Amino acid sequence: MQLTRADKWLIGILIVAAVGGIALNIAVSYVARPQKAEIYQEGHLVKVINLRPGYHEEVRLGGVVHFNVVVADNGRIRMAEADCPDQVCVHTGWISQPPQQIVCLPYRVVIRLEPAANADIDDITR
Amino acid sequence: MGTRRLVMLGLFIAIAGVLHAVEGWLPVPLPVPGAKLGLANVVSLLVISLYGWRDALTVAVLRVLLGTLLGGAFLGPAFAMGMSGAVTSVLGMACVYHYRRSTFSLVGISLIGAVIHNVAQISMAAMLVGSVGLFWYLPYLLLFALPTGVGTGLVARFFLARLAKITC
């Protein structure tokens, strides 16, 4: 196949940009440690869950139809169930480190991970 | 508008609409949500090089309407993403084809179209869900866009070479 010089440059730049972006993505996900999950619905923050070892919580968003079931368990979080047509969010599976995220485009739900303040010790209540 | 051109554009819209709908059914064996082959891009490239950017834009808009109607995603989020990607990539590819035809071959133009398509779709999705974090998907989509962009460019090139023999 005949490619012009500009074609080859374009392919090279794209490979570098894509691989660099993926490397950055992986690097960022290795550095961060204790996490909290922020659940956004239609752009609004509706729930924050601290992801700690041994901690379990289930959150149901939406109504009888158009629902998402989010499950946090043992430092990970996933979309356990949703009645959206594409099921992309459910198939994303467990996530535990940023910048991993779960996106349900049909219902505009995003689960983002953010580094949490040190959660190694339990909170003190007064 | 001559009859031949009318028929050809109608055919292109039909082909592109079906490609758009059918490629939504194809499973992509990659953990990247939203990764697609971009088969309908072949038609956009062909119409740009045969009839110019105005007809290409018409074909792209009607293709998304038709494709999402067939695929059951009409006016949903997939529609907004498909439309934004199709319109911006056709305009981008037409610009490059018009001004830089000697610099880039059809393969390079197809790649540029694929990249614009991905960036536009991610921007649209980020706007829909209100989260900038979606741009983390972009490198993965760009990596996937490389083979598919080159592939669609080659298909368009072969098709044009054959079409010249049939005379259009």
Question: What distinguishing features does this structure have?
Answer:
heterodimer, A: alpha+beta, mini-chromosome maintenance (MCM) complex, domain 2, four-stranded antiparallel β-sheet, three-stranded antiparallel β-sheet, 36% strand, B: 168 residues, 0% strand
Description of the molecule:
Chain A contains two helices and seven strands; from the N terminus they run H-E-E-E-E-E-H-E-E. Chain A has helices spanning 5-31, 88-92; strands spanning 35-41, 44-51, 56-61, 68-73, 76-82, 101-104, 109-115. A four-stranded antiparallel β-sheet of chain A has the order 2-1-7-6. In chain A, strands 3-4-5 form a three-stranded antiparallel β-sheet. The longest helix of chain A is centred in the N-terminal third of the chain and has 27 residues, at 5-31. The radius of gyration of chain A is 19 Å and the shape is globular. By secondary structure, chain B is mainly alpha-helical. Helix content of chain B is 76%, strand content 0%. Chain B has six helices and no strands. Chain B starts with a helix and ends with a helix. The interface between A and B is medium-sized, with 35 and 34 residues.
- CATH T-level fold name of the largest domain in chain A: mini-chromosome maintenance (MCM) complex, domain 2
The low-confidence runs of chain B, each spanning 5 or more residues with pLDDT under 50, are: none
The CATH homologous superfamily of the largest domain in chain A is termed N-utilization substance G protein NusG, insert domain
Number of β-strand runs of chain B: 0
The H/E string of chain B reads HHHHHH
Measured distance between first and last alpha carbons of chain A:
73 Å
Total E-strand runs of chain A: 7
CATH level 1 class label of the largest domain in chain A: Mainly Beta
SS element count, helices of chain A: 2
Assign a percent range to the helix content of chain B: over 70%
In total, the number of domains of chain A comes to 2
Question: What is the alpha-carbon Rg of chain A in Å?
Answer: 19 Å
Task: State the assembly state of the protein chains.
Answer: heterodimer
Could you report the average pLDDT of chain A, rounded to the nearest whole number? 84
How much strand content do the residues of chain B show?
A: under 5%
